[in-house]
Amino acid sequence: MVDLGPIPLRGYAFCIIIGVFVAVWLGNKRWIARGGRPGTVADISVWAVPFGLVGGRLYHVITDYQLYFSDGRDWVDAFKIWEGGLGIWGAIAFGAVGAWIGCRRRGIPLPAWADALAPGIAVAQAIGRWGNWFNQELYGRETDLPWALKITSAEDGRVPGTYHPTFLYESLWCVGVAVLVIWADRRFRLGHGRAFALYVASYCVGRFWIEYMRVDDAHEFLGLRLNNWTALAVFVLAVVYLVVSARTRPGREEVVEPLTGSGASDGDGVKDKEGEPSDPADTESDSVAADAKSKGTAESAAEKS
């Protein structure tokens, strides 16, 4: 933990902050490459990030309510996000709501923005998972492998020993997901939300088997952890979206951000000096009038000669 004056900055929070900055930086580069303007990704992230943090915390508290509302627990701890506990499913769902608000205010299609952000979100997850190392949480079965995670704390039911570092496995998987999405996006020119859907589907595959390795207490249904069922359901939805979107809206968006300002064209006409689109019919009338005036001037000059 690092003290920034009166504010304690824990390793978990530090990893999340770094991840957010990397996601915005990479997303901005991809957005500009798609024809968007610099700064748009950061502007919309101002909406998406807070919503995502709230959603991630809500999902964690609801699915692990016994950690905060059972006997001997302090419900105030539910608000201590810096101590760990964010559910990616809630973070993505609520973050999408915040992004939708930001995109709507800017007149930007949410799927295009999500496609630009997809690899960055995966990289942010890869970085954020290292916060679990600081908190000594999210590990698997015991192992004596060279890269085993050594648990030294005996708090909250932990048993000191060496375990599979499932947080490390998920971090590496997320890096692979980011590389896959970037490659597929360049190779197939994914558009209309398909790059984001590919990120979601490929992340769910890794999360399913990594979740199966974990040994911490979790709610189960039919022999599978709740997060396994969530990963399976979200994977199916993402694949269905990929297939349907490819058939109904093939290709990639030609325009991802409306042009504004002086001298920019909106595709329907030309911009006047005030930056407003002029009527094409008015433009044509002005052209005809100018030709007639020029012709009259030429005829008058010929008569005088």
How do the strands and helices of this protein lay out in sequence?
Layout: E1 2-4, E2 7-9, H1 11-33, H2 40-63, H3 66-69, H4 88-106, H5 110-128, H6 131-135, E3 149-151, E4 161-163, H7 166-188, H8 194-213, E5 220-221, E6 224-225, H9 226-248, H10 280-304
Antiparallel strand pairs: 1-2, 3-4, 5-6
Helix pairs in contact: 1-2, 1-5, 2-4, 5-7, 5-8, 7-8, 8-9
Main sheet summary: 2 strands, antiparallel
What is the distance, rounded to the nearest whole angstrom, between the alpha carbons of the first and last residues?
A: 93 Å
Our Rg estimate from Cα atoms comes to 27 Å
Q: Which residues form runs of ≥5 with pLDDT under 50?
A: 1-8, 261-290, 297-305
Average the pLDDT over all residues and give the rounded result: 81
Q: How do the SSEs run, as a string of H and E? A: EEHHHHHHEEHHEEHH
Structure annotation, total helices: 10
What is the overall silhouette? Answer: globular
What is the percentage of strand-forming residues? 5-15%
**Main sheet: which strands, in order across?**
1-2
* Alpha-beta content class: mainly alpha
Q: Report the count of strand segments.
A: 6
Q: How much helix is in the residues?
A: 55-70%
From the structure above, extract its key features.
mainly alpha, two-stranded antiparallel sheet, 61% helix, disordered N terminus, disordered C terminus
